[in-house]
Specification:
Layout: E1 6-13, E2 16-22, E3 26-31, H1 37-51, H2 56-62, H3 67-76, E4 84-89, H4 90-109, E5 117-122, E6 128-139, E7 145-154, E8 161-164, H5 171-184, E9 191-195, H6 200-203, H7 207-214, H8 218-238, E10 255-260, E11 263-268, E12 277-278, H9 284-297, E13 304-309, H10 317-332, E14 336-341, H11 344-362, H12 364-374, E15 387-394, E16 400-405, H13 414-442
Helix pairs in contact: 1-4, 4-8, 7-8, 10-11, 11-12
Amino acid sequence: MDVKDVIIKVQDFGPVKEAQIRLNSFVIFSGASSVGKSYLAMLVHFVYRVLLGGELIDFLQSQKINVQELYKQYELSPAENNNYFFRCSTSDFKKWVGKRAIEYMQATLGNSDFKGKVEVIFEGLPDFFTFELWKQTALSEDSQILKNSFRISLRELDSFGVYLEHDVNIYPFAFLLSRYFRIVLNLHPTDTFFLPPSRGAVVALPDTVRYTLMEGVGMYKEFIEDMSYLKNRIERFVASDTPKKRKPNFPLIDGVISVKDNELFFAPNSGKESAPLPISAVASSIKELAPLAIMMQKSVLGRYSILFEEPEAHLHPELQIKAADVLAQGLLSGAHIQITTHSDYLLRRLNDLMRLYILKEYNVKKYESFCRKYNYPKDLVINPNMVSAYFVSKNEDGFSVVEQQDVRNGVPFDTFDTVTDKPFYSSSILYELIDTIRSDENN
């Protein structure tokens, strides 16, 4: 089992003429608006949905596998040697990924006319995924014999298998396939989460209204489903939070998000034991960051691959810097993260955290001294090898060009400097001009 890399190739993908994206723990897309950054980020997110199991049921169904019929055939003549049950061609899998990627983009964007060509290269896959089945007699926890106990395994997973007490269906096969990808790619996350732009308005609505309004808008429908699963997963832990127990463990909102009756509430770290506020009554920045706050408060952030559109949205520059620290904490916990950004504050801080990693590798004493002197959190660093960064811009013929950036010393953002330097220069000239006029008038 040696899948070395996952490469996403696109052609005529929305405004992007062609591009090649390599999966990594942290994938950053920067550039001007309307150049296709979000399209590429959504595509990376989709590939994680495949690898972590969110799309694999669809793949197995596309293979027209009749599990019950195969089960009947197995009952009549079980294999004597390797218990071969069925297998899927990895060539068919790759073709399905390319086709399904466009369908996902169409649904996510709410645009059935979206076109493009997608090829995902999984280096080192076998020619087939081969599933095996054994019928066995097993004992339950109370030592009762189970009449229909089966062990299903994927040959590429060696001895790992799934035991069932009932008739076989397609879901365990998708689970095994996802586990295979997680092992060979060394993926810690088990779920995906989509944080789309302007999500704060959706967070503030009751679930019933959310589903009614957003049923046809793919990215918000996915966000609603992700939020519902997150709240159901942790509600029994956070609903019991009291003001005395609340801790300032999410620096971006200076408070705690709780869940009660499937709705969100916010309690600020003000020292007052007042009742938590409904999420609809708090600032936009808190609404936007609520899902991430819940994940961090309950230590489940590392279970997710997260597409985070514009982490800097609605945040003061000081908080944009803290947002970079939160992203780094997520990476250290095992999360995989994809972002789109226009923020030089965010990128500068991310670059600092990457350079701190380099400094720490070279000289631990100088690293520790620097952190103490300039008040950087200890051990909050980003390994540049975990980062893939892409700058997207328009060329003369109107197509977007995607440049993979060299991040060994941080993410280059020269275009940000070009944009910011020009107004600073003109502002200084304007200031000097007015100062000169006033001086002449006084004389």
